[in-house]
């Protein structure tokens, strides 16, 4: 059963801003928290991404960790995950069949993963209390769910009313993000390897969010007669 057409404009209005906000929250918090490291500079290339949200201060497996604003990064991951879930639910309402369920499920999975990533940061405590598996689930699930979400929405671009170039970008970015970890992990610096797979999701989200926002603005413009659903153009009679 397809979504009620009367709900589609509302869905489009908050899907785009949610995706853009998720990206900005993540990147701004990352920059601020990384700049606040007070024992040594944080390395985007060598350090684990999760070190930014670690409460632990000291040496851990050859890394010196000191992130005074860890709480800001953790809060940003949780908020970003919630925004991804909200946007995915909105996108799912535009679809029918299996994709109507898969896209929201992927967004919710990513939100759960980012919560685990934030609540169980990497450090000695993960080995002491046996919660290392929860950190690992959060880390890998966020990469898998986020990049699969990009690929699936790319293939669903027509019913979502998204342009073809965005479909290509989504599938390419998601594919790179999924293949990157098994192909590069271990011989590429840790921080760089992780960021390739994380930033591929952010690239998809930013591009998709901007397209959705611009489409909403076009639909609400003076040329729109108010009767079309998202992704459809209004045909005016020839003069």
Question: What is the strand and helix layout of this fold?
Answer:
Blueprint: H1 8-35, E1 58-60, E2 63-65, H2 70-92, H3 97-119, H4 124-128, H5 132-155, H6 157-160, H7 164-184, H8 190-219
Antiparallel strand pairs: 1-2
Helix pairs in contact: 1-2, 1-8, 2-3, 3-5, 5-7, 5-8, 7-8
Can you give a write-up of this model?
It contains 8 helices and 2 strands. It has one domain. The chain is mostly helical. The chain starts with 7 loop residues before the first helix and ends in a 20-residue tail after the last helix. Helix 3 (97-119) runs antiparallel to helix 5 and helix 5 runs antiparallel to helix 7. The longest helix is centred in the last third of the chain and has 30 residues, at 190-219.
- Rounded to the nearest angstrom, the radius of gyration is 20 Å
Number of strands: 2
Q: Helicity level, as a percent range?
A: 55-70%
N to C succession of SSEs: HEEHHHHHHH
Question: What kind of sheet is the major sheet?
Answer: 2 strands, antiparallel
Q: Which ranges are low-confidence, i.e. pLDDT below 50, for 5 or more consecutive residues?
A: 1-11, 223-239
Give the overall shape. elongated
**Average pLDDT rating:** 88
What count of domains describes the coordinates?
1
Q: What is the strand arrangement across the widest sheet?
A: 1-2
In percent terms, what proportion of residues is strand? Answer: under 5%
Structural class by sheet pairing and helices: mainly alpha
Contiguous helical run count: 8
Question: What is the distance, rounded to the nearest whole angstrom, between the alpha carbons of the first and last residues?
Answer: 38 Å
């Amino acid at each position: 059963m397809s979504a009620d057409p009367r709900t589609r404009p509302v869905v489009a209005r908050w899907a785009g801003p949610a995706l853009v906000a998720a990206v900005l929250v993540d990147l701004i918090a990352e920059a601020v928290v990384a700049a606040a490291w007070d024992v040594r500079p944080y390395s985007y290339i060598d350090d684990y991404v999760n070190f930014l949200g670690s409460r632990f201060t000291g040496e851990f497996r050859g890394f010196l960790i000191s992130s005074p604003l860890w709480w800001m990064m953790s809060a940003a991951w949780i908020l970003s995950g919630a925004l991804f879930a909200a946007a995915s639910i909105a996108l799912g309402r535009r679809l029918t069949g299996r994709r109507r369920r898969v896209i929201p499920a992927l967004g919710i999975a990513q939100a759960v993963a980012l919560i685990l990533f934030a609540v169980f940061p990497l450090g000695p405590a993960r080995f002491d209390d046996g919660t290392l598996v929860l950190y690992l689930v959060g880390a890998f699930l966020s990469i898998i769910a986020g990049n699969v979400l990009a690929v699936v929405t790319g293939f669903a671009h027509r019913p979502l009313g998204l342009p073809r170039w965005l479909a290509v970008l989504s599938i390419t970015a998601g594919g790179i993000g999924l293949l990157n970890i098994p192909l590069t992990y271990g011989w590429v610096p840790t921080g760089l390897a992780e960021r390739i797979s994380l930033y591929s999701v952010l690239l998809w989200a930013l591009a998709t969010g901007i397209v959705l926002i611009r489409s909403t603005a076009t639909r609400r413009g003076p040329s729109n007669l108010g009767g079309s659903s998202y992704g459809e153009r209004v045909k005016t009679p020839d003069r």
